[in-house]
Description:
The protein is mainly beta. 3% of the residues lie in helices and 39% in strands.
Amino acid sequence: MTGPVLDRRLFAGGLAAVPVSACAILRPSGQSPVAPGVTVSDFGTTDLGEPVRLFTLTNRAGHTAKIMTWGAAVTSLTMPDRTGVLADLVLGLDTHADYVARSRNFGTTVGRYAGRIAGGRFDLDGLAVQLDTGGAAHSSHGGPVGFAKRNWTGRVDETAAGPGVAMTLVSADGDQGFPGELVITVTYRLTHDDRLTLAFEATTTRPTVLNPTHHSYFNLSGAPDRLVLDHVVTIDADRFTAFGPDKIVTGELRSVAGTPLDFRRPKPVGRDLATPDEQMTIGGGYDHNFVVRGRQGTLRRAARVDHPASGRRLELWTTEPGVQFFTANAIEMIGRGGVPYHPRCGLCLEPQHYQNSPNRPEFPSTVLRPGETFRSTSEYRFGLSV
């Protein structure tokens, strides 16, 4: 692949993503490819008759991650507690049909643009772009039929670091109103030292904006009928992007000091949830983007979550400038295995750029141009609390 790599999204080496130029060979077939540590099975059929594949990655420790082609979504992720007992740490649903009908972005790849773009409008190189908002006031998570509602193409990607799968999607010029044909690949890998890594790569035929993210809901207890209020969270950020009353960021990078959004020192999720704070009221709880410390484009820690009862630990490392922290504030449904999902039954750590960046020139740019290559890396690192 030729063309300059964007400085704003440097790729941290060691994760072998499938080149976008190889997308032509990533076609589903009756004989799905397999490799050590990878099995492939059918997981339903789309309305267009396309097969939905489920890739199961198993590392040397016997821990697993399952990723389906629909939404390039993680449907299951098992890790041990301090006694060695495995449990599924992500929320999900039982069937592909369930994901189509009532998913809340469980485990999905969100795009083209994670979060909200005000009015679904922005200017790019002097031209006005109007996105499909589906009748809503603003564009959200890439539009009514964003990346999370598409059937990607999967290919096994095995390296010495661990089993992986590369998911590729071609998004047409004008898709949901976004300019440029975009070819995007996200490579998931479950390493032998219990990291779930994500490596993004994308190119475009016209100037466009791009801000994909990963949207798993984690519950480290392994029992999603238990709320995450006892999960102890640390976020490596001194500022957050403040909301206006309409839940559109204002452009202000506000200090977390003296607010319920101060996670610079570890604290339980539930400690400040009921604080009468304007930002918490607007967000309905935690649903905010934090400005990660350190230089954008370098792989550094963004957040840590500890679950004292089980001993499980999760750290998010990313090259992205921000992380959206969300506490499943409005979920009320039946989840996988018939388990009731209630508000605060999971938490999301979504590595991404800031919301509404196309309308905020003071924010880091999300513009991608022809001849450039978008690259971004994130790692969810699992272990036990010390």
